[in-house]
Specification:
8 helices
């Protein structure tokens, strides 16, 4: 039923642009894992970016560029999406998707381990990003979050995806590094005095998961 509800909501509220659905199809044909955000969540990213009047966005984890397309949609013509991707194959597919959607002029993809790339990003951009979207390996989520805090301006947002993991974060016997990373991130985010954070559970076409939203003061 949750899949059908998501489809119903998408039909009336999201109305996924053709470029977005084409990107999903191209990613599938290129044998990328089907783990991109749902259309309803993608539209929410657009709304978040518009709320902070984003001109510069950082994305950690590109995959096939689907979430990046929703973020780029919110940017002005002179805006910039800097997206970091570990796998060259994924980056190639994403670049093609950005080109097909006529959004490539707003996007720069950097390939490599994000934790290796982020020091150069800080040196180049400083604390100038209006929004940071974290959607990469969960084991490194605590480190990604610390970097995001260094790079997000006051009044900006940090969005962190996949923080519920079908409720597995509650299973104390499950010490999978991905789950441990999420737990450490949540505990750290809740202690920060310079931010305001919350998390929302999501149940839909992508199963039972959730995302955290952090406002940087």
């Amino acid at each position: 039923m949750t899949v059908e509800v998501d489809a119903y909501l998408s039909k009336w509220l999201v109305q996924e642009p053709q470029a977005m659905s084409d990107a999903v199809k191209h990613s599938s044909e290129s044998e990328l894992p089907p783990i991109q955000v749902a259309p309803t969540q993608g539209k929410l990213l657009t709304i978040f970016a518009k709320l902070v009047q984003a001109k510069q966005i950082l994305e950690i984890g590109t995959l096939g560029g689907y979430s990046g397309l929703w973020l780029a949609e919110a940017l002005p013509e002179d805006g910039k999406l800097l997206t970091l991707e570990f796998a060259q194959k994924h980056a190639n597919v994403a670049l093609e998707n950005f080109k097909r959607a006529n959004q490539a002029h707003k996007v720069e993809i950097r390939v490599g381990a994000a934790l290796d790339l982020l020091p150069a990003v800080e040196n180049e951009f400083g604390r100038t990003f209006d929004l940071v979207f974290i959607d990469a390996d969960k084991q490194s989520m605590p480190e990604y979050f610390e970097w995001a805090l260094k790079l997000t301006r006051s009044g900006g947002l940090i969005i962190s995806d996949n923080v519920v993991r079908e409720g597995k974060i509650l299973d104390k016997e499950n010490t999978d590094p991905q789950l441990e990373g999420v737990r450490q991130f949540l505990q750290s985010a809740g202690k920060k005095q310079s931010t305001i954070s919350t998390a929302i559970q999501t149940i839909g076409s992508k199963g039972h998961d959730g995302f955290a939203v952090t406002y940087v003061q």
